[in-house]
Amino acid sequence: MSGAVVPRLSPERRAFIVVDPQSDFFEGGPLPVSGATETAESIARYLRDRGDTFDLRIVTQDWHVDPGGHWSDNPDYVTSWPVHCAANTGGAQIHASLADEKWDAVIRKGLHEGAYSGFEGASDDGSTLAELLATNDVHYVTVVGFATDHCVKATALDARALGFDVNVALDLCAGVDPETTRLAISAMSEAGVTFATSSEP
Ligand SMILES: [Zn+2]
After folding, report:
1. CA 129 to chain CA mean position, Å
2. Has 149 been annotated as catalytic?
3. Which residues contact 108 (CB under 8 A, 6 or more apart)?
4. Whose CB among 60, 61, 115, 188 lies 3.0–4.6 Å from 193's, allowing a Cys bridge?
5. Domains of the chain
6. What distance in angstroms lies between residue 17's CA and the mean position of ligand 1's atoms?
7. Any catalytic annotation for residue 171?
8. Would you give per-residue pLDDT tens digits along the chain (201 residues)?
């Protein structure tokens, strides 16, 4: 017999993850991503219009106490970076354009090392991003934010590796460098990430 339908116990639940929309990554900060302000305003608009179509709205923060060689006075911009997102400083705060959003969870990463993926972090109560998504029966995640070629890529690839359906809405992301952004999109695509824009259903 073909065509048997196995009923799902719960509808497919969706999470929206905004990666590292922190002041230090905006224009004027020590590690600016070009177009960050405009992109963050688009994310805010999207959350206003479509935020309630997601079961969980999550933000990640790079949150460094003593990240070792991740910070450098002579950064190579590959594995070492100028000092950024020091815990409890203004530069580590969510940028003003998204500061008033109601987040279901805030995931902080990189306290004592460089950490690019949100899946390396945890919320205040110690829950990892993977635990949070599992607890909430999430199947589908949309990843947006900063930067496409670093933390968005790492978060999306980890989500795929954990078995989630992952969409990266590139019109709600900004990258540091055009060439590494191109390579990041290619790596995500190979891993099965989709790239529906924010205007697609
Ligand atoms: Zn960092």
Report:
1. 11
2. no
3. 60, 61, 63, 121, 122, 123, 124
4. 188
5. 13-190 (3.40.50.850)
6. 18
7. no
8. 445 555 555 568 999 999 999 999 999 999 999 999 999 999 999 999 999 999 999 999 999 999 999 999 999 999 999 999 999 999 999 999 999 999 999 999 999 999 999 999 999 999 999 999 999 999 999 999 999 999 999 999 999 999 999 999 999 999 999 999 999 999 999 999 999 999 986
- Helix (H) or strand (E) run with residue 57 in it: strand 56-62
Which one of 24, 55, 109, 153 is the catalytic residue?
109
- Residue 142 one-letter amino acid: T
- Say if CB 60 and CB 151 are below 8 A apart: yes
CB 81 within 8 A of CB 75: yes
Handedness of CA 52, 25, 110, 155 (dihedral sign): positive
Residue 187 in contact with residue 158, Cβ under 8 Å?
no
Q: Please list, in sequence order, all residues whose beta carbon lies within 8 angstroms of the beta carbon of residue 191, skipping any fewer than 6 positions away.
A: 156, 157, 160, 161
Catalytic residue, chosen from 24, 151, 153, 158, is 151
Taking ligand 1, which is a single-atom ion, which protein residues have CB atoms under 5 Å away?
Answer: 62
Spatial separation of the C-alpha atoms in residues 111 and 127, rounded to whole Å: 15
